[in-house]
Automatic annotation (TrEMBL):
Pfam families for the chain: CYTH
Membrane-traversing stretches: none
Domain of life: Bacteria
Protein name, as recorded: CYTH domain-containing protein
SMART domains: CYTH (SM01118)
SUPFAM superfamilies, A to Z: CYTH-like phosphatases
CYTH domain span: 4-192
Organism in which the protein naturally occurs: Listeria immobilis
Amino acid sequence: MVKELEIEFRNLLTQDEYIRLIDAFHIKEDDYFEQTNYYLDTAEFGLKERQSALRIRKLETQFQLTLKTPESRGLMETTQILGADQATAILNGANIPVGPVRDSLKEIGINHEALQLFGSLKTIRAEKEYKKGLLVFDKNFYGTISDFDLEYEVADYDKGKEIFAKLLNDYQIPNQPAENKVARFYNHVYRNND
């Protein structure tokens, strides 16, 4: 799918809360997989100014180029699959290839030729189906830190919000909404380097 509305709720976790949840949901070692996000923006942070983000995600067997732009509820994700050679070329400064991501960048006023790599964030992830949604258990590594978060991806905003709040309450986890990963990455890596 090229365009998809992403509705998700996210909460930061302590290491103890993370361990409690993976035990409660019977997450096993072979449930985990690794992914790395490489973040791109203009030198003036044009995407960030538009509350948008562009990443190349390296998965085990493919690379995905995804542009996230804000909607009234959630984010619109525009994704296209890249070959390893295309992903490597972009990370080394080549232009975004012709396709839906480049078209969407133009629509929001971003010159694809001005994009550059700002860094990466690695995630060790496990996923479980939960009440018509997807629970995502993440341990993230970026800059000089690591953190933990729980995400709940749903199709219905109101029901998802209610289910996620109840889950946090049931496991006595304080409601600590987390910024998305790209925001946490920028805030840690670039705010600490000002």
